[in-house]
């Protein structure tokens, strides 16, 4: 038999990754192009993208590589990271992620590809998991209301400062921070305090509040418990003194320590903040991990971030939802008090599950063992003549070795252990869940002492103060007791995941959120120990793999966006916005333009824009959006004129929030520049631009982009995220930096935006891998197919639903908005009815009522194949026909499949009194019975949940009727 000869080179390239990432193949693309009347992708985007913004040349990125090659490169980078036993402490600890959680949550697409639970009926699993998290935090901190999740401990403390100022009695005065708080927390607080005119005073509060500070007025106090030095102090007297002065007291607490120590709530604190990292979430060189905040009852309604609550569904059954959803902070725009949007849901789920799996006894045992190691370590050091500075500690010791600290730390490093050099004389040593005997010997050796663990264990006393021993019960809810065996835990995780709809079931066409493929190759390195187990303050020499990856990613993102410099430190889009605006502010001030504080924001902008602007000390001036969805040019010019001398910046989303390529963008940028302002292009959603246009070239001075949208970091059910900020050269000196890692930003920077020097470094391999796998051409093709798919959907739906906005050539960009308002008006079928009915058809609804009420914004992304796009269009068209039946009176106005959607399996039982059939309810056109997704609850009554706010696990009998 003979075959044609084929070269090795051709065979070696295998299937390009691009064909795995992009859903529609050539044939499908040709069909879709024909449907919308174009001959090629290039022809399509040549028409859709305005000439004035088009890139002049192809992206200068390295050639695409295969999945096997990229994994090999990643292994090479991982090999250049050195994982030592970490005893640095400072809020980051070694932890053992139970493998059942590692594989079935962190590595499980049913959890990591889910969207934020705005559609609660298809999110009951993750909402329950988050309620576990809230219950855990509330119980351990002794404060009744906890949200589900802030971005990290440092920003949580900064949010507490803002909350204290808002809710406290004292409206003036300073924010007083104890000197034994984590240094990165203090730095994050200072970054945020300055632009809002808050003065931060850092002082040693171990002897109470200094009189000269008290005289100035204090609106809030922050304490660390245990302190950064490891010291455990009884803060009761201090809290009382602060309360007498009218201050709100925040205690930054360590959850593991709280299993043994009296809770902040019982000590009198008003707010508790911290991180849940050591509850089974790898350090990841700084993140992502879930920060937390818990508060007294009276502050519950002012809590920043998301809050899960309990409500009821249409049948009166218990159901979870995001509570006070309409009050979600950033949605209040310039009246918002926090800009938090994407948080750390996946990591919160992991930490909550860690507590579920271990239960209170298991956690207590881990805490006692950790404490015991510290006590034995201290005993050995003392026996060898080393002074231990504090008598009361939990897991962290400060050892005094005059003049020898550097030498001791170096010797420990030789022995495979990282310690913390506090200064020339002091060494910090933190124990954790992973500490072992061999490690103790290494530490003793570094100090030049020898210890015998058995003997020292017999001799060492406990070092927790008697007066602070925890005596109350916690984690009493059955969920923290039922899943001790791995089989039980596995099934619990599976049961919850099965309730939810994530990308592993079908498309999630969420406009503005870009729910695209999160490829397995991209995800794999995240859980490799060489990326997972690095401490963010580990010496740079041990993180060469990471530092190379970070530098390459920053450079490649700069190439993609056309900016000169990128910082990946911000750990969400909102944080990128704040970082970018702080850079603008610093730039104006450096030019002597302190008065430039006005931030122009179009009314259609994402809510975080205005919230971030306020946090950056700016005054928001709203610019009108025209009928066509574009920024109203007349209003813009009028506002520029009016605020000419105070104009700091215009924040504009591109492509516009309405999903179109605005043609006037370059004129808009020029007008702002002409008035001395800067242009902030919100590039959170860069999926219509990559490879086609560069904001840094078409007029932007600064942008953030969301790696959890365009660059494949999974949404995680509402986080993690990474929101890099890119700037032109004149703003580069004002990017974020970090006090503990000088290499993490410019010396002249604005301070840290995140607690960790490189933010959520642990998930950067995902975006690095994506760029490497696609290459410049592949990235461009992804953009083109994203534009193609959006236009295909717009074209297919147009005869049935009006498409609200289009740009050049009657085309949309990467998403389209369809208008349901006329149908609502004519038939009474609401946008909610359509969204919930989509669940019956096996879909996640598109973005609802943003940016225009009563509409759906659909973003298919390049990853959905033609079959799935058609299935979605067919469902929307079938729903349109159903609406017609309501309109004509064939179906009852109040009792029809739309109004009653979604339908559960339980709803089919018993009497069926509806004027439509069971089949019409649950197997509408196109739904295969064998492949049906069954929502676990009926439509949820949001108002009930807000009136009866319950934000921790309810007792099991609470909802029996
Ligand atoms: C998603 C988004 C944001 C906010 O990003 P987060 O990561 O959720 O903070 C800001 N602007 C736009 C246009 C977005 O789409």
From TrEMBL:
Domain Glycine dehydrogenase C-terminal intervals: 782-903
Co-factor(s): pyridoxal 5'-phosphate
Swiss-Prot/TrEMBL GO biological process terms: glycine decarboxylation via glycine cleavage system
Residues annotated as domain Glycine cleavage system P-protein N-terminal: 19-446, 453-736
E.C. designation(s): 1.4.4.2
SUPFAM superfamilies given in the database record: PLP-dependent transferases
Catalytic activity, reaction form: N(6)-[(R)-lipoyl]-L-lysyl-[glycine-cleavage complex H protein] + glycine + H(+) = N(6)-[(R)-S(8)-aminomethyldihydrolipoyl]-L-lysyl-[glycine-cleavage complex H protein] + CO2
GO cellular component: cytosol; glycine cleavage complex
Record's keyword terms, sorted: Oxidoreductase, Pyridoxal phosphate
Modified residues (N6-(pyridoxal phosphate)lysine): 709
GO MF, one annotated term: pyridoxal phosphate binding
Pfam families, alphabetized: GcvP2_C, GDC-P
Domain of life: Bacteria
Family to which the UniProt record says this protein belongs: Belongs to the GcvP family.
Biological role: The glycine cleavage system catalyzes the degradation of glycine. The P protein binds the alpha-amino group of glycine through its pyridoxal phosphate cofactor; CO(2) is released and the remaining methylamine moiety is then transferred to the lipoamide cofactor of the H protein.
Oligomer and partners: The glycine cleavage system is composed of four proteins: P, T, L and H.
HAMAP family, sorted: GcvP
Name recorded for this polypeptide: Glycine dehydrogenase (decarboxylating)
Organism: Streptomyces angustmyceticus
Source lineage: Bacteria, Bacillati, Actinomycetota, Actinomycetes, Kitasatosporales
């Amino acid at each position: 038999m003979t075959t044609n000869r084929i070269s090795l080179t051709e065979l070696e390239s295998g299937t390009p990754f691009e064909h795995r990432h992009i859903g529609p193949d050539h044939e499908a693309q040709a069909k879709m192009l024909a449907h919308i009347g174009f001959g090629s992708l290039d022809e399509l985007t040549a028409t859709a993208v305005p000439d004035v913004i088009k890139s002049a040349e192809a992206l200068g990125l390295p050639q695409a590589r295969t999945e096997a090659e990229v994994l090999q490169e990643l292994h090479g980078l991982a090999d250049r990271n050195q994982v030592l036993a970490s005893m640095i402490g400072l809020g980051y600890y070694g932890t053992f992620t139970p493998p059942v959680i590692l594989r079935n949550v962190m590595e499980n697409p049913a959890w990591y590809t889910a969207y934020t639970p705005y559609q609660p009926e298809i999110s009951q699993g993750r909402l329950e998991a988050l309620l576990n998290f809230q219950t855990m935090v509330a119980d351990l901190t002794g404060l009744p209301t906890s949200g589900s999740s802030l971005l990290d401990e440092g920003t949580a403390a900064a949010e507490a400062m803002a909350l204290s100022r808002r809710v406290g009695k004292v409206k003036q005065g300073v924010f007083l921070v104890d000197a034994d708080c984590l240094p990165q927390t203090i730095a994050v607080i200072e970054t945020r305090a300055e632009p809002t005119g808050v003065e931060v005073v850092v002082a040693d509060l171990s002897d109470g509040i200094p009189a000269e500070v008290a005289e100035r007025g204090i609106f809030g106090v922050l304490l660390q418990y245990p302190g950064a030095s490891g010291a455990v102090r009884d803060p009761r007297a201090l809290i009382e003194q602060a309360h007498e002065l009218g201050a709100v007291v925040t205690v930054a607490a360590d959850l593991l320590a709280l299993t043994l120590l009296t809770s902040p709530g019982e000590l009198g604190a008003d707010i508790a903040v911290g991180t849940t990292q050591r509850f089974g979430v790898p350090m990841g060189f700084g993140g992502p991990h879930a920060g937390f905040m818990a508060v007294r009852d009276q502050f519950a309604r002012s809590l920043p971030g998301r809050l899960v609550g309990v409500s009821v569904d249409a049948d009166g059954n218990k159901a979870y939802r995001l509570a006070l959803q309409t009050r979600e902070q950033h949605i209040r725009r310039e009246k918002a008090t926090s800009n938090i949007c994407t948080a750390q849901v996946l990591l919160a789920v992991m930490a909550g599950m860690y507590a579920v799996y271990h239960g209170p006894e298991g956690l207590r045992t881990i805490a006692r063992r950790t404490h015991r190691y510290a006590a034995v370590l201290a005993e050995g050091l003392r026996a060898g003549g080393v002074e231990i500075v504090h008598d009361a500690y939990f897991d962290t010791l400060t050892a005094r070795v005059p003049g020898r600290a550097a030498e001791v730390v170096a010797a420990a490093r030789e022995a495979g252990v990282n310690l913390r050099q506090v200064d020339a004389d002091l060494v910090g040593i933190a124990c954790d869940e992973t500490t072992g005997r061999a490690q103790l010997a290494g530490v003793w050796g570094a100090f030049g002492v020898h210890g015998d663990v058995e003997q020292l264990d017999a001799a060492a006393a406990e070092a927790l103060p008697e007066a602070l021993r925890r005596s109350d019960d916690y984690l009493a809810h059955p969920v923290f007791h039922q899943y001790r065996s791995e089989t039980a835990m596995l099934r619990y995780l599976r049961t919850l995941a099965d309730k939810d709809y994530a990308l592993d079931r079908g498309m999630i066409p969420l406009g503005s959120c870009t729910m695209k493929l999160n490829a397995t190759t991209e995800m794999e390195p995240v859980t490799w120990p060489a990326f997972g187990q690095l401490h963010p303050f580990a010496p740079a020499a041990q993180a060469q793999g990471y530092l190379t990856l970070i530098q390459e990613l920053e450079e490649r993102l700069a190439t993609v966006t056309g900016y000169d410099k990128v910082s990946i430190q911000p750990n969400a889009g909102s944080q990128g916005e704040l970082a970018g605006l702080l850079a603008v502010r610093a730039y104006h001030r450096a030019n002597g333009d302190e008065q430039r504080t006005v931030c122009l924001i179009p009314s259609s902008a994402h809510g975080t824009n205005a919230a971030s602007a306020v946090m950056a000390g700016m005054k928001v001036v709203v610019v009108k959006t025209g009928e066509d969805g574009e920024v109203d040019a007349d209003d813009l010019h009028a506002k520029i004129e009016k605020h000419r001398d105070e104009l700091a910046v215009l924040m504009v989303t591109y492509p516009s929030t309405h999903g179109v390529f605005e043609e006037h963008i370059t004129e808009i940028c020029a007008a702002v520049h002409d008035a001395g302002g800067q242009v902030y292009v919100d590039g959170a959603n860069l999926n219509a631009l990559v490879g086609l246009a560069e904001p840094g070239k078409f007029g932007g001075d600064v942008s953030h982009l969301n790696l959890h949208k365009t660059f494949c970091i999974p949404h995680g059910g509402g986080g993690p995220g990474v929101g890099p900020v890119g700037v032109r050269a004149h703003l580069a000196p004002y990017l974020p930096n970090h006090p503990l890692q000088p290499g993490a930003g410019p010396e002249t920077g604005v301070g840290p935006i995140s607690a960790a020097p490189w933010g959520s470094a642990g998930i950067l391999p995902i975006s690095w891998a994506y760029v490497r796998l696609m290459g410049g051409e592949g990235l461009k093709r992804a953009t083109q197919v994203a534009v193609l798919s959006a236009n295909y959907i717009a074209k297919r739906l147009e005869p049935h639903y009006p498409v609200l906005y289009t740009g050049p050539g009657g085309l949309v960009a990467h998403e389209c908005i369809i208008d349901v308002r006329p149908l609502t008006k004519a038939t009474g079928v609401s946008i909610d009815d359509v969204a919930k009915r989509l669940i019956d058809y096996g879909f996640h609804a598109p973005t609802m009522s943003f940016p225009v009420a009563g509409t759906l914004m659909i973003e298919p992304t390049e990853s959905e194949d033609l079959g799935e796009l058609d299935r979605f269009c067919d469902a929307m068209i079938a729903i349109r026909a159903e609406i017609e039946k309501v309109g004509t009176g064939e179906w009852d106005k109040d009792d029809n499949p739309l109004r009653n959607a979604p339908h559960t399996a339980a709803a089919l039982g018993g009497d069926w009194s509806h004027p439509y059939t069971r089949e019409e309810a649950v197997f509408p056109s196109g739904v295969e019975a064998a492949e049906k997704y069954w929502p676990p609850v009926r439509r949820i009554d949001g108002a009930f949940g807000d009136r009866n706010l319950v934000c921790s696990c309810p007792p099991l009998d609470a909802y029996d009727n």
